Amino acid sequence: MFAFSLMALFTREAGAAVAGVAAWRAVFVALVFAGGALLREGGPRALLRPSRDTLVLGSGLGVALAVASSTFVGGYAFTTVANTIFLHNLAPVVVFPLAWWLNRERPGATALAGAGIALVGVALLSGVSFFQVAHFANPRFLLGDGLALLSAVGYGAVLVLTRATRRAGTPILATLALAWTVAALLLVGLAMATGTFGLSASALAWTFGLALVCTNLPFYLLNLGMRQVPAGTASVLSLSEVVFATVLGTLVYGEALAPVGWMGGLLATLGVLYALRPPDETSPEDTDAVGIPDAARPLRGARLALALVLLNTGAVLTLLGHGGGAAVLAWAGLAWLGRLGPGLAAAGMGPGPARLLSWAGSAVAGVAVAGALLRGAGSFTAGSLLVAGLAVAAALADRALCAAQAPGHREPASLVGGGLGLLGLATAFAALDHPAGPLLARIAAVADRKST
User: Fold this and answer.
1) What is the distance between the alpha carbons of residues 215 and 7, in angstroms, rounded to a whole number?
2) What is the pLDDT, as a whole number, of residue 366?
3) I need a surface site. Which of 116, 278, 306, 340 has the fewest CB within 10 A?
4) Are 290 and 299 in contact (CB under 8 A)?
């Protein structure tokens, strides 16, 4: 995945149309794999007379590679980079059911939990913009989102078919040569249709480096690794590519990363590392003793859903111009998720990983509230009675859900509720042009911060 993450460096240096680069990359990759098969896997016979499994699985893999490459490029062309990255990395959502259907690979609990944690991290790291109302009013954005989502399906199929080739025992280099030949034929046709196939000598040189370092090497290593690693686990590990690429962009190109991006990178890393964790050899009773008890999980899930609604509602109201209070409302929802989420996600973990996840959640909540304090609380130039009502309603609803839990399972989060109540009061004061509004908003943010 580190080798995959270097793609941005070679692609930028090539300085050519992405469709043309993708086509030539596939041509070079196919030639290198074919040369390797000739030298190491039985000569021309392995290429000219493939077995039935190699022909069927290799051809299917080639189509999946072409779909993933072309639609990923289409996502970049029509929608935001953030949405393209996030949607493309939804591959685990595709891989788990597809691997179960085709290969009867049951998804492991650690892989599922790691995928959930890592995907939240990728969402924060990429800065997806689905909550922007204008996004849904633009057919171009929606087309790009659809193509990026299709690229996740293509990449998910790549992982599942790669696992199938390892289970069938087909020769790695010959299978990859066939797959990339099929992909090259499709991508070359696409590049010619769009008039982007011609590249300069310099661009061809960088594209050859892209093929060798960022495609031939990682795909060969991926095939070696997937002899033992299920497709679902591999899809979670593939999310580390986003983290590697972000770090490289920061170090090499000096790209700035917002605080929420650092939180996302931390969560994505934790999710990937958790997917690597071997299964516990403890009894179900011991496993259930860590994290939230089974009886308490539905109500805790309802509280988390309420926090998620609060986060998205605050974001939408901020875009609609409901003042600084709406921004603080969104940050409060994020802090709430960081405060209550780790306990539910830690179910089934050992004490060490559960404690690590809890610390990460507290860090997310702390940074979220600090952002609210710095960005939103001082901008109460206009209040909103709607925001005030929502803040108070959310605090009362959470209190009711908490009271419905058994006494031993309650986690009141009183300061969170108090902070929301103060936020509602501050927004109401601001709506009445009372000078106490900004002061109360800062106190509300501090109350939320102390709750973490």
Assistant:
1) 9
2) 57
3) 278
4) no
Residue 326: which of 371, 369, 390, 373 has the closest Cα? 390
Contact, 212 vs 32, CB < 8 A? Answer: yes
Among 92, 87, 72, which Cα is nearest to 183's?
72
pLDDT tens column, 126-172: 665 544 444 455 676 777 778 888 888 999 999 999 999 999 999 99
Query: What is the DSSP annotation of 64-132?
Result: HHHHHHHHHHHHHHHS-HHHHHHHHTTHHHHHHHHHHHHH--PPPHHHHHHHHHHHHHHHHHHT--TT-
Tell me the pLDDT tens digit for each residue of 332-369: 777 666 666 655 555 555 555 555 555 565 555 555 55
Alpha-carbon distance 178 to 338, whole Å?
47
- Record the pTM: 0.62
Are residues 310 and 333 in contact, defined by beta-carbon separation less than 8 angstroms? yes
What DSSP character marks residue 361? Answer: H
pLDDT at 411 over 80: no
Tokens, residue 81: 């980079």
Q: How far apart are CA 60 and CA 53, in angstroms?
A: 11
